[in-house]
Structures are given as C-alpha cells and as structure tokens.
Design a protein that fits this description.
Elements lengths: L3 E5 L3 H12 L3 E5 L11 E4 L1 H9 L3 H7 L1 E2 L5 E5 L5 E6 L5 E4 H9 L4 E2 L15 E4 L6 H7 L6 E13 L6 E5 L2 E7 L4 E9 L9 H8 L6 H5 L8 E7 L7 E2 L2 E3 L2 H4 L8 H18 L3 H30 L5 H23 L1
Parallel strand pairs: 1-2, 1-9, 2-8, 5-11, 9-16
Antiparallel strand pairs: 3-7, 4-7, 5-6, 10-13, 10-14, 11-12, 12-13, 15-16
Helix pairs in contact: 1-4, 1-9, 2-3, 2-9, 9-10
The structure holds flavin-adenine dinucleotide.
Protein name: NAD(P)-binding protein
Pfam family, one: FAD_binding_3
Keywords: Monooxygenase, Oxidoreductase
C-alpha cells in the first residue's frame, strides 16, 4: 500500500525509514528538533546486515565510498590491563567504519527534513496514516503510547568516547573489574576510543584527567591514545536501555531504532539495527494491504531479534566489567582463544 507518514527524529533510524518508505511510493516528512544535522560525532561500526540495508535504500555506494574497512590484518582482541591476551582476533574486513555525521549526511540526501521542529508527541501529528517514532532512547513517542514504565533505564555504567588523529599501535578491548577501554581504527590516520566504568551517575567535567588517572597505567594503549585526546573532544553519558516492549506499534504509531530497543553499546549494533528496522518497516508497509498488517509484519520481523540483542549486549557489558570471578572468566577466555587458534591452524594446513 501507499500512504502518508510523519517521522519524528532525523537520526539513523528516522532517515533510513524515510528513504525506505519513499522507495515504496510513500509521501514522507521528517521532523527533527535539532536545528541541523550534527557536525561532530564519533565513528560507528557497520556490520554486513547494516551494509545490506544501506544498499537497499540506495545509500550503499556513498557509504562504501566514505567509510573505512577494518584491515584484515589489524590485530584486535581482548586483553587484561597488565597486557595479557585473553583472545586474539583479526579485524577481518567485514566491518565498515564511518563517522556518524557523514552517515547522517548521506542518509539525509533527498529526504524532506524540517529542522527545529520538536514534536510534542504522536497526537500532535495530523494527517498522517502512520506516525513513526524515531526519536531515540528517551523517545517521547514511546512514553506517550506505552507509558512511563517503559522509560529508558540505567545500566549502572557510564561511557566516554571520541576519535583522535593518528593511528594507534594496538587495537582491541581491555577488560578489568568495573572498567573497560577500547581502541579501534577510525580510518588510515585516525583512532576511535571508548571507555566505560561501572558507576551509578555520569561524572562532572573535566573528564580527561580522570580518564588518565583510571586508565593511564594500563599496558594496552590507553595512555598513548589519551595523550591525544582534548577535553572538548570527549563525549560522556550514562548507559541506558529500553525495557522489553509488548509491541513496537500501537494503532497508527510505530517505533524504530533506539526508540524501540536502545541497547548498551557493547555489541556495536544500535545504529546497524536502526538501519535494518527502517528497511523492514518500509518493505512491510509497502507489501501490505493495510497499515495494521504492515505494522504487524514489521513487529514480527524485528521485535524478538532486537530484544534478544538488548539482553546480549547487557550481558557482554556485565561480563566485561564483572567485579568478581574475573580470574575464572579470564582462564575460560584464554582456553577458548587457544582452542579457536588451534582450529584455525588446522584449517590452514
Ligand atoms: C558508546 C556508544 C558507541 C556506539 N557504537 C556503535 C557502533 O559502533 N555501531 C552501531 O551500530 N551503533 C553504535 N552505537 C549505537 C548508535 O549510536 C545508536 O543506536 C543509533 O545512533 C540510534 O539511532 P536513532 O536514530 O534510533 O536515535 P538517535 O540517533 O538518538 O536519533 C533520534 C533523533 O530524534 C530527535 N528527536 C528526539 N526527540 C524529538 C522530538 N520530540 N521531536 C523531533 N525530533 C526529536 C533527536 O534530536 C535525534 O536527532 C553506539 C552507542 C554508544 C552509546
């Protein structure tokens, strides 16, 4: 079917959905509260399913042309702060890294976005067959439809992240009780970094000295990266997730992206799933005879899968920063890494 859709939010989810619906012949308008697309932001890693979604909405070539493949030879893996390797892996070339502002710019090309247009809630939207809440983790659309018990909840952890110029000598994640530090390539001459601490509340600025105090002595590269970080280049926030919703739609209103399933960042999948949501919703509405059927088809295609990822991502974070039992965990990881390594060398023979 065809119809008219209003999308609340011009993030990855809203823009991908707008493109997918336009391809199905829908008349789409996007309302964004911010005055413009963001000019700054860190790097997102896009997995193959997200790249397929980008191809489906005609953004594949531009994203592939602007992103950077993780070098197949780039050594990544898990280590302890003392530098002991738990699991060594190769980057593998399947992940494409792209700066978030660039991805948004590509997605917004050709989409009708009204900036500076804050929407009070789905009831404030007239004349649309479908209202799409793509308004992020603290979605007003979700609260209006499902109520305050579905407000995003704290995961008891906070994160800092940023991108610095220059390559880093080593990549990968370092796991310690209550803390984690990650370093990944962000291009031929840039490095993405992130740090997490188990903590109830976000920290007050300044952040840089605090990060150096906590992570500076780790032997896995944080000091080298933090030397290049500036206070202004640090993003800091609490980690949140959305409780399991009973449905991703209600009446003519439907949720996509973080509004539906905001998750901890430990799988690096939030934006990827937002892209896949957009394509799934566009296809389902385009192929259905009614809005009700189209929204039900989207819910069937996406809810169970994304809610499973929310749980797995939370578990990975808890396992990474577990305060007790980490020696046993490390022994299991090292043994698993050795088995995987042996299997790899047998295959190569
Ligand atoms: C530390 C960290 C690292 C991450 N790394 C990765 C990664 O490597 N790979 C990956 O796939 N994902 C990653 N993610 C997740 C990813 O950033 C998000 O899942 C993704 O950006 C969600 O997009 P969205 O469009 O759903 O929401 P948002 O990006 O939050 O967009 C929502 C938009 O709605 C607008 N809005 C809100 N309310 C209103 C309103 N009332 N009216 C109008 N507009 C409104 C907002 O201004 C915003 O532009 C990471 C997240 C974190 C925290």
């Amino acid at each position: 079917m065809r119809g008219r859709a209003t999308i609340i939010g011009a993030g990855v989810a809203g823009l991908a959905t707008a493109r997918a619906l336009a391809l199905e012949g829908w008349d789409v308008d996007v309302r964004e509260s911010a005055p413009a697309l963001p000019g700054t932001g860190t790097v997102l890693g896009l997995w193959p399913a997200a790249l397929e979604a980008l191809e489906a909405i005609g953004a594949g070539p531009a994203v592939r042309g602007s992103g950077v493949r993780v070098e197949a030879a780039a050594t990544t893996g898990l280590r302890t702060p003392a530098g002991k390797t738990l699991i060594a892996t190769n980057g593998g070339g399947k992940l494409l890294l792209i700066r978030r502002p660039l991805l948004l710019e590509i997605l917004a090309d050709g989409v009708d976005v009204t900036f500076g247009a804050e929407v009070a809630g789905p009831r404030a939207v007239d004349g649309a067959d479908v209202v799409i809440g793509a308004d992020g983790t603290n979605s007003r659309t979700r609260l209006a439809v499902f109520g305050g018990q579905y407000a995003a909840r704290s995961l008891g952890a906070v994160a800092w992240r940023g991108t610095v110029e220059g390559a880093a000598r080593s990549h990968g994640e370092t796991w310690a009780p209550g803390a984690l530090f990650g370093i990944s390539p962000a291009g031929p001459d840039a490095t993405n970094w992130y740090a997490c601490l188990s903590a109830g509340q976000p920290f007050d600025p300044p952040h840089l000295q605090h990060l150096r105090d906590v992570f500076g002595s780790w032997r896995t590269g944080p000091a080298e990266v933090l030397k290049r970080v500036t206070e202004a280049g640090i993003l800091h926030h609490e980690l949140l997730e959305v409780p399991r919703l009973p449905s991703y739609s209600c009446g003519r209103v439907v949720l996509v992206g973080d509004a539906a399933h905001s998750m901890a960042p430990f799988l690096g999948r939030g934006a990827c799933e937002a892209l896949v949501d957009g394509v799934a919703l566009g296809r389902s509405l385009g192929a259905s005879a009614s809005v009700a059927d189209g929204l039900a088809g989207y819910d069937r295609a996406r809810r169970a899968r994304t809610q499973r990822l929310v749980g797995i991502s939370r578990l990975v974070g808890r396992t990474a920063m577990m305060p007790r039992g980490f020696r046993e965990r490390n022994a299991v990881l090292q043994a698993a890494g050795a088995v995987m390594g042996a299997a790899g060398s047998l295959k190569r023979r």
